[in-house]
Amino acid sequence: MSTLELQNIGKSYNGIKVLEGIHLSVAEGSRTAIVGPSGSGKTTLLRIIAGFEVPDCGQVMLQGLPLVDHKSWVPAHQRGIGFVPQDGALFPHFNVAGNIGFGLKGSKLQKQHRIDMLMDMVALDRRLASLWPHELSGGQQQRVALARALSQQPKLMLLDEPFSALDTGLRAATRKAVAELLAEAKVASILVTHDQAEALSFADQVAVMRNGSLVQVGDPQELYLRPVDEPTATFLGETLVLTAHLEQGWADCVLGRVAVDDSLRSGPARIMLRPEQIQIGLSPQPEQRQATVTSIDFAGFVSTLSLLMADSDETVEIKAISRGAIYPGASVSLNILGQAHIFSR
Question: A Pfam family matched by this chain, by name (predicted)?
């Protein structure tokens, strides 16, 4: 049984379509990431699920019960959905314990016991309970916001770019901790982000949104290796896209003859390779494509190499791990691992 089902969700503002034809299913206890550039409609979709916005059309089902359809609309506070916004939105006039315990029912002792349990759950030192939000680090504030959302025992957790204000190291650690926590609590979750690496790392299912529509939904690795089109490929990570001619499972392109993932396609096409599929060697190999390094854009661990291909006088740019032995003017050979992907559209 799915925790959440979205069917044909649409939304417009002043005649401008923001969402159109959205279909999405979120399995019990799973983590879904909705990823896309700014303005693609991600946050609007999340607000519709939460109950902060009403769609123009479509149906929202939570654990088999309708939240939105042509006959009914359940208000946000009755949906049993937790929501963690981008800035945490903690109450500044409540301390940590007050924020986490907001809305809890029961005696003072029962509330305190529940607050202690929630602080342990999100790995917050209980000694922080008396501190005010402004006295906490960014990561601690996000954990308090998550504990507050979990206090209502939600059926679904919505996370609206909750890690974007954190620095890089803390962002990765907090994201991992939140993913593990939600998995342990067996709460299905939806993360909205414009960071493709964050989406691929966090989720069991990734939904790519562009111009108000979901262009591809699936397993993170499947989307990364077999994106439906060029914009999705480039959005999900570094890639090399080439024009090629297909025939019997092979593509002839600037890199030579490359195996492809569809032996039935033939004729002109666009193919894709991820940087990790391209090995750059310093010793010329006669069976491999030869090139000369014309320039290097050094960026620490990874550099962008401009390569002048032998025999064709064409230049390609390839991301590669930085190596001191590779320098402008060096001769290199290219070895392709696996198959190139052919875009379906």
Answer: ABC_tran
